[in-house]
Every structure is written in structure tokens, then in C-alpha cells.
TrEMBL record:
A molecular function (GO) term: DNA binding
Any matching Pfam family: LysR_substrate
Gene3D superfamilies in the record: Periplasmic binding protein-like II, Winged helix-like DNA-binding domain superfamily/Winged helix DNA-binding domain
GO annotation, cellular component aspect: protein-DNA complex
Keyword tRNA processing in record: no
Domain HTH lysR-type: 1-58
SUPFAM superfamilies: Periplasmic binding protein-like II (SSF53850), Winged helix' DNA-binding domain (SSF46785)
Record keywords: DNA-binding, Transcription, Transcription regulation
Family as reported in the entry's similarity comment: Belongs to the LysR transcriptional regulatory family.
Protein name, per record: LysR family transcriptional regulator
Amino acid sequence: MELRQLRCLVAIVDEGTFTDAALALGVSQAAVSRTLASLERALGVRLLRRTSRAVTPTANGIRVVAHARRVLAEADELVREATSGQRVLRVGYAWSALGRHTPSFQRRWAAAHPGTELQMVRVNTATAGLAEGSCDLAVLRRPLEDRRFDSAIVGLERRLCVMAADDPLARRRSVRLADLTGHTLLIDRRTGTTTPDLWPPDSRPATEETYDVDDWLTAISTGRRIGMSAEATASQYRRPGVVYRPVRDAEPVAVRLAWWRDDPHPAAPTVIELLTALYRGV
């Protein structure tokens, strides 16, 4: 089955006769007849009923024509996308997008590129949806070991400790890594920025795993667990009963933009420039 066969079928139904369909398609009437016959052979059903005055779809033909219209519409849309440039840019992220820079990024992009819609997509995987095809570019906060992808650092974020508002540490303006040793730390090994390696081997806190930011915050709010995350999380997820405190002696978190190495997205340089400017306060 080929697209030209479906176009022929739809043209016959829309025009009402083989002769008019041939005129609409710019081919001979004999070519229309042959194309329809080949489609009916491919499907194994009769699609049209011909009389001396009209051509009408059979019951099978009605169903096939409805599907054919949808298939042809999708094919036409594919051609438009391929020939008119990107009209939608999907930027994936795992837990937090760009924190306080997210609204500015969206507004600046809309002003500079009104013909390309920006969509922020949350996908909690190691590549924030890039490997899964859910996005075109991805914001990541950990190095990518997968050689299929390339990335560039666009900014740095402070590392914050996340705790219940009634935790004794919450009275402080900041904390140190050593202050967290006796706590149980909730981490996401797939996408998170925190691992026990931040601490010396003899003073690492106990850890438990989580895979969702809402579950993470809910557990922390009970006071039985703490968390650590990049500062974007504090901007993205404010919640009553949970506070964020800077960790003075922890290295900052590098924010990266990633893309497919063998098929770099044409918007990547523009997005890198915009995000770098935002993180620099330009």
C-alpha cells in the first residue's frame, strides 16, 4: 500500500467520478483505475461500487477512506515540518527545569523565535527524555557517560540541603556536609546530583532511593529524611513544611544542555547562548 493509492481513493470519493479524479490528480483515467485496482488487491477488499451515474464507497470503503484521510494528513504535516523548519522545540528536564530562570527563558525564546513554540517536558530519566525521543534538547545536572550524546555547561547552581521546617538544622542560614552525616538522605540515582561520594568514606550518611520529586518532598516534610539538590529545585518546588539551606562546603552543580552527537539539533547553539546569558545575569 502506497500513499499515491490512498490519494487516488480519496480523490475518487471526493470528485465523484474516475474522470474528475483523473483531472484533479493530473493523470489519465486509466491510471486512476489501475491505482484503485492495485489498492483493492493489496487490501483484499472491494472499496468502491461503480454505477453508470456515480461511484460510491462500499462499507469497507467508508472505513478505509476515513483512515486514508488521517494518514494523508499526517504525511502532509510531516512534509511541512521537514521543509519549513522546526515549529516546536521540546526541552526536556528531570526534576527541575531551569529554576528561577525558567520563566525568563520561555519569554525570551517566545520574543526572539515567535514561529517556534517552546515546550518544557519533564521526563525523569537519565537523559531527561532525550534517549526516549520525548525531547529535542535536554537540561541535565550530571555528566553524561553515554557517548551517543554531547553536552555543554550553561551555568552553575548552588547545592542546597532540603529538610523539614521543624528540623533543628532549619534554624541555621546554611549547613555543612558534616552536619548531615547522622541523617538519612533520599537520593535519585538515575537523575539526581547527590551521591554518598560527596562525603569522606568514614562519614557518609545513610541513603534511601526515590524516583519522583513529589514523593521526595513528601518524605522530607515528615522530618524523617533529608534531601540535597541543585538550587533550581527550591525555585521550582516550594512546599509548606519544607525549607532549603545552602551547603557551604559542597561543590556547585553544573547545568548542562545535551543533544544527540550524530544529529545535533539546529537550535542547540541558540539555546546555549540564551541559557548562558541567563545564568550570567545578562
